Amino acid sequence: MKKVSFIVLAIVAMVSVYFYARSQDVYVIPEPVKVTTNKFVSFKLSNPIVVHVESAEAQSAANCLSERLTPATGYLVKTGNKPGAIELNINKKQNTEIGREGYTLDVTSDKVIINANTSAGLFYGVQTLLQLLPKEIESRTIQNGVSWIIPGVSIVDYPRFAWRGIMLDVSRHFFSVDEVKHYIDNISRYKYNVFHLHLTDDHGWRIEIKSLPRLTQIGGCRVKRTGKFGDYEWPKDGEPATDCGYYTQEQIKDVIAYAAARHIQVMPEIDVPGHSAAAIAAYPDLSCTNNQKAFVNPGSKVSEWYKDGTFKIFIDNSLDPANERVYTFLDTVFTEVANLFPFGYIHMGGDECYHGYWEKDPGCQKLMKEQGFRNSDELQSYFVKRVANIIESKGKKVIGWDEILQGGLAPNAAVMSWKGMEGGTKAAKLGHEVIMTPSQYTYIDLPQGDISVEPECLTWGSVRLKKAYEFEPIPDGVDPKYILGGQANLWAEKVYDMHHGEYMTYPRAWALSDVFWSPKDKRDWPGFVSRMEKQMPRADIAGINYARSAYDAIVRPYKEKGKLKVELSTEIEGEAIYYSFDSGEYKQYKEPIDIPNNIQKLSVYTTYGKDNKGKTITLPLSTLLARTK
Ligand code: ACM
Asked: Does ligand 1 come within 6 angstroms of the Cβ of 351?
């Protein structure tokens, strides 16, 4: 009898461990390369947590682990070379399978072992380990009553791409050092390794250049406005510019060190020759027009953009390529920037430069004639090549946006391709390094759901979550060795604060971390959705804001035989869609609906699981009709 009870108990225990382990299955973002689960095994953290390390590199990963384990568990983390339940090892013999940034992670009932070739690999192993723990580990306060169990797994993991970037625009809206650090900390959880700071633009110069103090004294300040960025009133004559913000060089060093501790390199961007209104406000003679009344744009409309991709800028915001003082100025700027940032690349911008003032300027025309340039694109290319030489003379590689291809690319320049896939394809075929960041997949400043229910954002395109997830960074017909990787870009015209910045970033940066890190053949949208759903409550506890727009319906009005119809769909499988006219009874959507011409509005919502509901989208008939155009 005793024996039977023992067997029954043993079976019950095994079954519960099995189901526990299942409920704790591996939901890691980005998806690791190889995961083998051992459902009958798990490891439980207990106090104190002893972490075995033998080297300074391993110690730095142990410090990161300790910082994340202690607040929620309240356990003491002891690190040192004594035997420990958690081992963080730098491989004595290189493991060639996992490369420079990979790791292996093995969880058995009595040990957790992370092995890597470098401290970066250990750091990434630690990020994965943290995602295997219960979500309460994300809390900054002690969580009593949680069993800190890690499922039995064996993971081999390494990135697909060496460049896994996110850009933050700190010119259009300035973010404090603490906000920037918080942003960096969050992206490091998802194994991003390049943080691109867009430091200068028409709306503010945000980095101290000690030899050119006016850049921040004048270029870092604009007149204060509230309301909608982009529609603000122009500065009035004599109006004081009191809305200021820039980083001192000491603060920049602090941010770089903070990022380095998380294995993130910081890449500076100084955007020239266009997007330079802030520099010109400080030093008007850098532009052809030498307008002494030049101002830092507070977010007023100073340009017009046309459907064919061309544009006009009413206030000169471009540096004068025929003025030698411009190159002296840039040499000074890039000398200080190169000394400050250890990363091997400097971004020179190069995008959206309006040539209208160059075309009217006698100095530019003379230079073009002397050099035999046939058009202003060749003049731009001349400028880019000279700036590339300056940057390279500081021992750095130069990167620019697609437009640096116009008129001929500088010999060693890398291209950050944002206008679709074409620029990157062309540059890679010419043998240049490329970072793919096409706006239709990676511009996380664009709306991720129906604009009627999204917060204010730029609306010249949209990037739904599934679209971001579908991004393939290697263009067809291109040698993959030229594609360093990809990047998400958070432009900040309409990002008024960091809470909103996080909303725009997540979950798209989760999807893109899979794109940049995980093997292409592991791409699996429903699988990503399951992992995202585990990540959301973790982000809630960690205090990371994110959007739930992926749950919202996609409303597509169209005309068929002159009649207005609407197709409703969702990007998350298994959602039900409901609609009603004029707040009447909701019906479940089955097929495209005929829209009666006497209704005022259509309302739509989705449900998913038992308590999950997308936002209700209500569109007036006039909007439905307008969207068919
Ligand atoms: C860009 O979006 N102008 C690079």
From this structure: yes
The stretch 247-255 carries a mean pLDDT of: 98
208 is catalytic: no
Domain boundary among 157, 186, 212: 157
End-to-end Cα spacing for the chain: 79
Residues 21 and 169 in one domain: no
According to the 3-state scheme, what is the secondary structure of 323-337? Answer: CHHHHHHHHHHHHHH
Q: Indicate if 352 belongs to the active site.
A: yes
- Residue 356 phi/psi, 5° resolution? -55, -40
| Strand partners of residue 51 | 79, 86
Model confidence pLDDT, tens digit, residues 456-477: 888 899 999 999 999 999 999 9
Instruction: Give the span between the Cα atoms of 325 and 386, in whole angstroms.
Output: 13
Structure confidence by residue, pLDDT tens digits, 383-439: 999 999 999 999 999 999 999 999 999 999 999 999 999 999 999 999 999 999 999
The number of distinct structural domains making up the chain is 3
Residue 567 and residue 537 share a domain: no
Rounded Cα distance between 627 and 595, Å, is: 14
Residue 25: band (very low, low, confident or very high) from pLDDT cuts 50, 70, 90: confident
133, 157, 181 - which closes a domain: 157
Does one domain contain both 60 and 203?
no
Q: Are residues 422 and 338 in the same domain?
A: yes
Q: Is 352 in the pocket of ligand 1 (CB under 6 A)?
A: yes
Q: What pLDDT band is residue 8 in, cutting at 50, 70 and 90? A: low
Q: Is the CB of 401 under 6 A from ligand 1?
A: yes
Could you check whether the bond before residue 473 is cis, i.e. omega within 30 degrees of 0? Answer: no
Protein residue with its CA nearest to atom 3 in ligand 1: 351
Mean pLDDT of all residues in 320-336: 98
The ligand 1 atom at the shortest distance from the C-alpha of residue 418 is 4
On the question of pLDDT at 6 being above 90, the answer is no
- Rounded CA separation 226/74 (Å): 44
Alpha-carbon distance of 185 to 258, in angstroms, equals: 8
Q: Output the CA 351–ligand 1 centroid distance in Å.
A: 6
pLDDT of residue 443: 98
Which domain, by its residues, includes 64?
Answer: 2-157
pLDDT at 613: 80
Mean pLDDT throughout 252-280?
98
Whether residue 407 sits in one domain with residue 265: yes
- 268 lies in the same domain as 406: yes
Whether 418 lines ligand 1, by a CB cut-off of 6 Å, is yes
Residues 337 and 396 in one domain: yes
CB of 458 shorter than 6 A to ligand 1: no
DSSP string, 565-603: EEEEE-SSTT-EEEEEETT---EE--S-EE--TT-SEEE
Among 201, 361, 502, 571, the active-site one is: 201
In degrees rounded to 5, what are phi and psi of residue 600? -90, -40
CATH of residue 145: 3.30.379.10
What type of residue is 96?
A: T
